[in-house]
Amino acid sequence: QLSEVLYPDGTAKIAEAGEVSAMLITPTEELSYKAKFLGSGLFEVIIPADALKDLEDGSYTILISASIEGAVPASVASSTVVY
User: Which residues of the chain have pLDDT under 50?
Assistant: First the structure.
């Protein structure tokens, strides 16, 4: 869920707009996919099965990036396992 934090107040509210993307990082390339805005701070990214079909079994990094106009972009990394 994407929130907009107001500085210096430190208050947060659910984002009503913004851009989110997911990047799947493999040994040979970085595959980027744009998220769809679902409403009230919710975004959905679908990584197509075709992107995974030639990957070897193992762990891969996923980088999620979010931005709202006029704000500093934020990113978080995680991993997923393909088998």
Answer: none
